[in-house]
Amino acid sequence: MSIDRKPIKVHEAIEAVLKFAKDGEVEYIPINESDNRFLKAAIKADHDIPPFDRSPLDGFAIRAEDTVTASQTNPIELEVIETVGAGGLAKKVPEKGQVIRIMTGAKMPEGTDAIVMFELTKEIERDGKTFIVIKRAFKSGNDISYRAEETRTGDVLVEAGRQVEPGVKALLATFGYSKVPVAKKPIVGVYATGTELLDVHEPLEPGKIRNSNSYMITSQIEKAGATAKYYGKLVDEFDRCYEAVASALEEVDVLITTGGVSVGDFDYLPAIYEKLGANVLFNKIGMRPGSVTTVAEYKGKLLFGLSGNPSACYVGFELLTRPWIQTYLGSKKPHLQLVQGILKADFPKPNPFVRFIRSKVTIEAGKIYAEPVGLDKSGVVTSLANSDALVVLPGGTRGFKKGDEVDILLLNGEGSTEILKK
Amino acid sequence: MSIDRKPIKVHEAIEAVLKFAKDGEVEYIPINESDNRFLKAAIKADHDIPPFDRSPLDGFAIRAEDTVTASQTNPIELEVIETVGAGGLAKKVPEKGQVIRIMTGAKMPEGTDAIVMFELTKEIERDGKTFIVIKRAFKSGNDISYRAEETRTGDVLVEAGRQVEPGVKALLATFGYSKVPVAKKPIVGVYATGTELLDVHEPLEPGKIRNSNSYMITSQIEKAGATAKYYGKLVDEFDRCYEAVASALEEVDVLITTGGVSVGDFDYLPAIYEKLGANVLFNKIGMRPGSVTTVAEYKGKLLFGLSGNPSACYVGFELLTRPWIQTYLGSKKPHLQLVQGILKADFPKPNPFVRFIRSKVTIEAGKIYAEPVGLDKSGVVTSLANSDALVVLPGGTRGFKKGDEVDILLLNGEGSTEILKK
After folding, report:
1. A130 burial level (CB within 10 Å; 0-12, 13-18, 19+)
2. pLDDT of residue A1
3. Which of A171, A177, A325, A387 is best to mutate for the B interface (most B CBs within 10 A)?
4. ipTM
5. Across the interface, do B366 and A342 touch by the CB < 8 Å criterion?
6. What confidence score (pLDDT) does residue B343 get?
7. What pLDDT, on the 0 to 100 scale, is given for residue A263?
8. Residue contact B169–A206, C-beta within 8 A
9. MoaB/Mog domain spans which residues (chains A, B) (predicted)?
10. Please, which residues bridge with residue B114 across strands?
11. Is the peptide bond before A289 cis (omega within 30 degrees of 0)?
12. pLDDT digits (tens, 9 = 90+) for A10-26
């Protein structure tokens, strides 16, 4: 089938996809299951932290005024009248010359206004009573952790759209989120196309290769925060392909196909979009790899027609599908993080299209470097395993040299609010 | 209880822990469940990639010698005798003046030695036969992807100890790993101590706070690649604490306790180590936060006595427990990744101990910066949620200024082979 293909720019493609962005629904899940999920609401302090004035260490709660005259040459003795542990409350109120032994985290006893750590005191016993000896004066407020000094009720501590990680989880626990409001995961369907594809458990045959894209893409989907639903391989017959795609679309939020979007005789996807009556957003992007990447929209749902070449498939997902997923999850940084760094190899040959070069980032003396990994051909699968970044080489008439400053998209970075403008 | 505490250096503490490193067993799991697991064996190519000479695009497989005379002014016609799709094999062998229509990925037909893409040809029909018109000469080898040009049988593509991610998974699929050899996850038990601790679902009470450490640390354990087993809160009674610890130790590979290692009256852990007959590796580290961090060994198993202060607990885990877990999993980079960067705030006050300051890393114009996050006190929980790094400020007599170059440990980095020497 012959179709007119007019390449659009990468950022135009991303923008076209995000016109069909959706805001995922909320669901409440147990805190123990919330790791890596995206918060659908900000975490707000429902109480002050600390919730009360407290001792940050093990020592004695004293009345500072009792120590005014204390010095090396004039040690004073104060009577220990009670011990209060963390979680306990003092029952007595010290009067002049009295102190309360207090453990880390315990609430400041009424009538006391300073903490003195164990190490600055000496304990003595006399007449069945316990005293401490103090050899210096302490000011009111010494070593107290004051109520709300860390956070006040109502403060927003973590924004909606953030992913739950250990530090976030500590706050969820602190503020009593036994159930956590998170974004539901979108369901992303995957169909592979290609008569040459064998499944992972099948022995190799002449002319055939194993299907690596489906495994790779389901990993990418899960890493991006969605649920992958793998439908298998589309058969090599148009009507059955059409039925399979139409039926899968009813069950998923987004459907990815790998392969079948090029100009080959068995590339059925363009015809399937047409028969569906889907709105083809674009069928060519001015980029390498992945120029044939196609996205169509049907009843508000997107069909991502990714290339069957492993590297092109990988890049197409990261640039186009991932931002859709992350937007659905409420992430404020749905795009790959873009940084600048130094190129570690020559790319003398210019290319009319922007190139995304699989690379490995290193940090040396505080600076970012990117080294291309392996063969830079779209069909190459091995280089993906050792990449953690894509070097972005703009299209045009110039080549690039080792030492040039280039844009680098981090595959494991914290994301970005901005769309790459290339 | 009074114990002698002699601080050791951070790297001495890490080295002491890793003297009890273990090498986890292998288990074979389905490829679909292998995301984020650690490979117990290298991925080796069991066949060449490509496994055969193939066409990297949609076009025609030709005999280059047939095109020697072709030019703009002297176009030649070649007969199309067969079409072969990816996964298929040509049945015919072209003779002089004949070509085979070929799709991306298909094996090079016998007798052909060059590929010409569709776009460089024109198809015509005559006498019921199909011909292509070619207006230039092509060299033997034009646009062929040769067997093994990407990888040869026996090449090691991914080392043992690497974590499975999308690119690695693509290779596992390519080489037929329907079952993947990964390291068994160690089981890390967690007991919290502290009478002041409420569980996440309990309402606040005077003098009490919610237990955030247990939730945080189980997240850290899972993130590090292990299985967390939370046992709950140790009760405030020595004999029952002792029984609980001794019994948990039988079920886990490592036991973490949070709190109870300081010098407070209810800090039972030192006495529990003593009663067990455990070998205390150290009970003080020259660092802030987390100086009271204690590690003991009992019958080859480690007991990590982390501080009850959230930040101290967090740092203690990342510096000491995580490398043990990652070593067990076979990671070659079990330590936090160390980079250099620019400090974005003043720390004028010197400290005798090395400090680990919760910070947020930014990358600006190819350089790394670290900005301290929130209050830098060990009891502070809120700053952890917004940190992705620990700035390392060496102990000594000097303070640090905005603009100083400092060491930075990345909490989400790719790890390091090296132990921090501070």
Report:
1. middle
2. 43
3. A171
4. 0.94
5. yes
6. 97
7. 76
8. no
9. 189-327
10. B62
11. yes
12. 999 999 999 999 999 99
Q: Which CATH class is domain B30-49+150-183?
A: alpha beta
Q: Where are the domains of chain B?
A: 10-25+186-328, 30-49+150-183, 59-134, 337-410
Yes or no, beta carbons of B368 and A363 under 8 Å apart: yes
Please give the CATH architecture assigned to the domain spanning B10-25+186-328: 3-Layer(aba) Sandwich (3.40)
CATH number for A10-25+185-328 (one of 3.40.980.10, 2.60.120.1440, 3.30.470.30, 3.40.1180.10): it is: 3.40.980.10
Model confidence at A107: pLDDT above 80: yes
Which residues of chain A lie closer than 8 angstroms to B261, CB-CB? none
B238, pLDDT greater than 60: yes
Give chain B's end-to-end CA distance (angstroms, integer).
30
- The closest of B50, B410, B304, B107 to A380, measured between CA atoms, is B50
Residue A299: predicted pLDDT = 96
pLDDT at A132 (0 to 100): 97
Of these ranges, A264-268, A311-315, B372-376, the one predicted with the greatest mean pLDDT is: A311-315
Give the CA-trace dihedral at B369, B374, B379, B381, to 10 degrees. -90
Considering chain A, what is the average pLDDT of its residues?
94
Question: A265, B101: Cβ pair inside 8 Å?
Answer: yes
Which listed CATH number (2.40.340.10, 2.60.40.10, 3.40.50.300, 3.40.47.10) goes with B337-410? 2.40.340.10
Chain A residues within 8 A of B219 when measuring between CB atoms: 35, 164-166, 169
Name chain A contacts of B214, Cβ cutoff 8 Å. Answer: 173
Helix (H) / strand (E) element for A174: namely helix A166-174
What share of chain B has pLDDT > 90, as a percent? 90
pLDDT at B379: 67
Q: CB–CB of B176 and A49 under 8 A?
A: no
H/E stretch holding A311 reads: helix A310-316
- Contact residues, B window 149-178, toward A, CB-based 8 Å cutoff: 149-151, 157-158, 164-178
Architecture of domain A28-49+150-183: Alpha-Beta Complex (3.90)
Q: Which residues contact B119 (CB under 8 A, 6 or more apart)?
A: none
- B378 pLDDT more than 70: no
pLDDT for residue B1: 43
User: Is the C-alpha dihedral spanning B166, B168, B163, B362 positive or negative?
Assistant: negative
Interchain pair B339, A88: CB under 8 A: no
